[in-house]
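DM from R.C. (forwarded with permission)

"hey, sorry to bug you on a friday — could you get me a structure for this? deadline for the figure draft is monday and I only need the backbone to look sensible"
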Amino acid sequence: MRIPLLLPCLAALALSPAPALAWGSEGHQVVALIARQYLKPEARRRVDAILATDQDTLTAPDMAARATWADAWRREHKDTENWHFADIELDDGDLAKACPESPMSDAPASAGPATECIVTKLEQFARELAAPATSPQERLLALKFVLHFVGDLHQPLHASDNHDRGGNCLALALGGPRTVNLHGYWDTVVVGEIDPDAQHLAKQLGKRITRQEMAAWSAGTPEDWARDSFGIAKQVVYTVQSQPGCDDSHAPIALPAGYDAQARRVAAEQLAKAGWRLAQVLNVALAPSADAGVKG
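My reply, with the result:
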């Protein structure tokens, strides 16, 4: 289970331990709000209809808030913890090792097992969302997990590891007394630096997606998306001067020159990419007869 050293805080000096949440609430909301811009009308109607049946009070009932539900759920349901990431090690790049195949089962995807990774669970829940025979209760769970896991899979540290709990062991110095671990930096600090307003950020990123990007991002599978995120982690995220493993005795590392600006560019693209791909997953599952990519 991934447990960060410190929770990033942009507005205060005091820091406190907390579970790592990919992209944080803002990032997941941004992904869902971008996706909503590109949902077919029928898919949007069905998303809203499914969510309207939800009596869960862990989050607000709208699509953007429900995209954060899986993180709230896992706080008390640790058996879903591993579903949020795939620890592809930098030194071998082996997705099969990080996500071993699970035996076929007729059980609902929400039943587990706890050892499965994000790639497997996203594929399972997407199939359930589309399958006519899925029960209403399971379809609701499938939708909420899909809303979340597509975002998770595009946070590079949810598809990579340097034997450091996905960057949770690596402390960074942000200037003055402020420190944060590498995972938390990418979860929340970078997104907040781009724009702390989820609605505004989603609108800006969504309208910038080009036709060429739509075509490119529509290709591939969750496995391909995981490998893409892993490549970004290797080429960008882990360019900080660090060694593999967890060693609490190391002093926080200063960010290299230009790292922060590059991180903002990469995170913005990953959020946009996740939003577009989430829309396509939902369009295929919930409005399969209409043309993909229609902006509603």
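R.C.: lifesaver. DSSP finds twelve helices and three strands in the chain.
me: no worries. The mean pLDDT is 90.
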